[in-house]
Design a protein that fits this description.
Elements (H helix, E strand, L loop, with lengths): L40 H14 L1 H27 L13 H26 L1 H8 L3 H34 L10 H29 L2 H20 L7 H10 L1 H7 L14 H23 L3
Helix pairs in contact: 1-5, 2-3, 2-5, 3-5, 3-6, 3-7, 5-6, 6-7, 6-10, 7-8
Length: 293
C-alpha cells in the first residue's frame, strides 16, 4: 500500500495577503478599501474641538462666565449711572473689571478640566492611542481651548464695554480712545485666555482636577490677600511686590486703573502671563513625554 504523497504548500489567496504586501506571482496584491492617510495637527485639533464642545462642563462653565461678566457689568453700570456720580476723567470701560475678575474663575476651571478630567476618567489612554504624538495632543488642546476662551471673553467683554459707554455718558465719563478700546477688549481677552491656558497646563502637570483648580485660584487670590495683612514696615517691599504683580492688579492695568503706583503698566501684564505660560508649556510637555498615561 503506497504512502500518501506530500502536498506542496500553496500560496495564500489574494484576499488573505497582508495589507500593503507585494503582488504574488500569478495573483493580484491586496489593496485596502480604507484610505490610509498620514495624520497631522489639524486632525488632533478637530478631535479636541469635538471633545470640548460635546461635554456639558464646557457649556456650564462658559455659560456661568458670560452670566457673571454681563450680569455684574450691567449691575455696576446701572448702580453708577443711577447714583449720578461724577466720573469726569474716568475711563468708562473700567467697570468691566469686576465681572471679568470673577468670571476668570470659570475660565480657570474649564482650562483645568480640559486636561485633568481625562486623567480622572481614563480617557487620556484612548486619546494617546488615537494620536501617539503626545506633544501634538497637548498643542491641539492648547490651541482649541485658547481660541474658545479668547472668543467668548472678547464677545462678553466687548458687549459690557459698549453698554458701559452708553450708560455712563451722562455721568461725565470720558469716551475711550482707540488704544483704551484695544486694551479693554482685545488685551483683557488675551490675558484671560492665557490665564486659562496656564490652568490647562497646570492640569496636565498635576493630573488632578481639584488640586490644579485649588493651585490656580490660590495663584489668583493668595498674593493680594497675603499682602493685605503685611503691616510690618520691614515687609513693605514684599507687600508692594505682591500688590503690583498680583493677577487682579494686572487685570486692572488694562483699564489704566492699577491698584498700585508702580509695577506693570501698559501691555506688561500680557508679556508676564505669556512668559509664565511658555514655561508651564515646556514643563507640561517634558513631563508628558516622560510619564506613563
Amino acid at each position: 500500500m503506497s504512502s500518501p504523497q506530500p502536498q506542496m504548500p500553496q500560496a495564500a489567496p489574494a484576499w488573505q495577503a497582508a495589507p500593503g504586501s507585494a503582488p504574488q506571482p500569478g495573483g493580484a496584491g491586496y489593496t485596502s478599501p480604507i484610505p490610509v492617510v498620514r495624520t497631522h495637527l489639524g486632525n488632533a485639533i478637530a478631535s479636541e474641538w469635538t471633545k470640548i464642545r460635546s461635554v456639558r462642563s464646557t457649556m456650564w462653565t462658559l455659560g456661568v462666565f458670560v452670566l457673571l461678566v454681563v450680569g455684574i457689568g450691567l449691575l455696576t453700570g446701572i448702580v453708577v449711572s443711577s447714583s449720578s456720580s461724577d466720573l469726569s476723567g474716568e475711563n468708562a470701560l473700567s467697570l468691566g473689571f469686576f465681572g471679568l475678575l470673577l468670571g476668570s474663575m470659570c475660565i480657570i476651571t474649564l482650562g483645568v478640566l480640559t486636561t485633568a478630567s481625562e486623567y480622572g476618567t481614563g480617557m487620556i489612554r484612548t486619546t494617546m492611542v488615537a494620536c501617539p504624538s503626545r506633544g501634538r495632543v497637548l498643542a491641539a488642546k492648547a490651541i482649541v481651548f485658547f481660541l474658545v476662551a479668547f472668543v467668548v471673553t472678547l464677545v462678553a467683554g466687548s458687549l459690557v464695554a459698549f453698554l458701559h459707554v452708553a450708560m455712563l455718558e451722562g455721568n461725565g465719563a470720558e469716551d475711550p480712545s482707540g488704544g483704551e478700546w484695544l486694551k479693554g477688549t482685545v488685551g483683557i481677552s488675551l490675558y484671560i485666555a492665557l490665564l486659562g491656558l496656564l490652568s490647562l497646563l497646570v492640569g496636565s502637570i498635576i493630573r488632578h482636577s481639584a488640586g490644579a483648580i485649588t493651585i490656580m485660584i490660590g495663584t489668583v487670590l493668595a498674593p493680594l490677600v497675603i499682602a493685605l495683612f503685611m503691616f510690618s514696615e520691614s515687609l513693605e517691599g514684599v507687600r508692594d511686590a505682591l500688590f503690583e504683580y498680583s493677577i487682579p492688579n494686572q487685570l486692572s492695568v488694562f483699564y489704566a486703573n492699577s491698584l498700585s503706583q508702580s509695577g506693570p503698566s501698559g501691555w506688561d501684564p500680557l508679556w508676564i502671563i505669556l512668559g509664565a505660560t511658555a514655561v508651564a508649556f515646556a514643563g507640561a510637555f517634558a513631563l508628558l513625554e516622560k510619564r506613563d498615561v
